């Protein structure tokens, strides 16, 4: 599937500009429409018993975001900035998730646990799991002008991995090299799994190396640490993996814990599908 309709989530944090620039680069590369969606936490302005929306601070932040968007997209055709116009955690999550369903790819930022956080802590996780669309998550540290030249695919024989691999193909076209890594209790099983995934990529003109490893035996966190370490070893500029959750819709269980760990510790952009 070609990338022709992209969404980037924006807020007033400094890192918002980094993911906007990446989204613009992707839109130019793929000839895609780009929509910037501004959405962050805020409380209605309260005067006595009367509440009004939006509060001045939110309105100022939104206008600044609109100006930065216009300056960054330049002459990019079909670029549009919109305002979520909501302030509560539940409403910001709902609006961003609903909007995401109408795009080929959503670009978001890794949550930063810091005082005065501007977005709900579970925003990325909820969009990954509830929108049905692939999400490209940009770390809050580092420069990532381009992604997909040296991708690392974390492969397991699951629905989520299959979705992520296929969703990532437009980003992997023309890459320098792809590396498919699979971990299983038995090396033979891991080898068979990642070889099949590499064959699928080959059908799309993407040559991939394969790496099969035995499980370290310390649960999903150990596997995810191994995956994160390989990003550094391979100088990978993109990690492709499935995102897992429990039936409740929140991260949990062994695979969900591993996904949550990657979202906290990621050092390169991650393309995640669920």
Helix fraction, binned, reads 40-55%
Q: What is the N-to-C order of secondary-structure elements (H for helix, E for strand)?
A: EHEEEHEHEHEEHEHEHEHE
The biggest sheet amounts to: 10 strands, mixed
Task: Tell me the strand percentage band.
Answer: 15-25%
What is the number of strand segments? Answer: 12
What shape does the CA trace take? globular
- As laid out across the biggest beta sheet, the strand order is 5-2-1-6-7-12-11-8-9-10
CATH topology of the largest domain: Rossmann fold
| Spatial separation of the terminal alpha carbons | 17 Å
Helix count equals 8
* Tally of separate domains: 2
Identify low-pLDDT runs. Answer: 247-254
| Rg from Cα | 19 Å
CATH superfamily of the largest domain: HUPs
The CATH class of the largest domain is identified as: Alpha Beta
The computed structural class is: alpha/beta
On the 0 to 100 scale, the average pLDDT is: 92
- CATH architecture verdict of the largest domain: 3-Layer(aba) Sandwich
Description:
There is one protein chain. By secondary structure, the protein is an alpha/beta fold. Helices cover 41% and strands 22% of the residues. The protein is globular and about 70 Å long. The two termini are 17 Å apart.
Quick recap:
The chain has helices at residues 15-30, 56-73, 89-100, 123-130, 159-172, 187-202, 219-234, 253-265; strands at 5-10, 33-38, 45-47, 50-52, 79-83, 105-109, 135-138, 151-155, 178-184, 208-214, 238-242, 270-273. The chain is of the alpha/beta class and 274 residues long.
């Amino acid at each position: 599937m070609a990338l022709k309709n992209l969404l980037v989530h924006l807020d007033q944090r400094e890192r918002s500009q980094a993911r906007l620039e990446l989204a613009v680069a992707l839109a130019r590369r793929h000839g895609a429409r780009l929509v910037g969606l501004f959405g962050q936490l805020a409380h209605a302005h309260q005067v006595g018993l009367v509440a009004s929306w939006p509060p001045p601070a939110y309105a100022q932040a939104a206008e600044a975001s609109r100006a930065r968007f216009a300056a960054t997209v330049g002459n990019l055709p079909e670029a549009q900035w919109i305002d979520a116009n909501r302030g509560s955690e539940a409403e910001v999550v709902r609006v961003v998730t609903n909007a995401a369903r109408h795009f080929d790819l959503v670009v978001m930022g890794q949550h930063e646990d810091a005082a005065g956080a501007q977005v709900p802590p579970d925003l990325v996780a909820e969009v990954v799991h509830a929108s049905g669309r692939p999400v490209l998550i940009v770390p809050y540290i580092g420069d990532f002008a381009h992604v997909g030249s040296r991708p690392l695919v974390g492969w397991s024989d699951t629905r989520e991995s299959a979705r992520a691999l296929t969703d990532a193909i437009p980003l992997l076209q023309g890459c320098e090299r792809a590396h498919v890594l699979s971990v299983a209790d038995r090396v033979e099983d891991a080898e068979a799994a990642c070889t099949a995934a590499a064959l699928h990529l080959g059908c799309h003109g993407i040559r991939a190396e394969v790496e099969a490893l035995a499980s370290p035996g310390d649960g999903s966190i150990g596997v995810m640490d191994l995956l994160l370490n390989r990003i550094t070893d391979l100088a990978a500029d993109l990690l492709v993996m499935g995102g897992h959750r429990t039936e409740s819709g929140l991260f949990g269980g062994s695979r969900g814990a591993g996904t949550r760990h990657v979202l906290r510790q990621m050092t390169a952009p991650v393309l995640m599908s669920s």
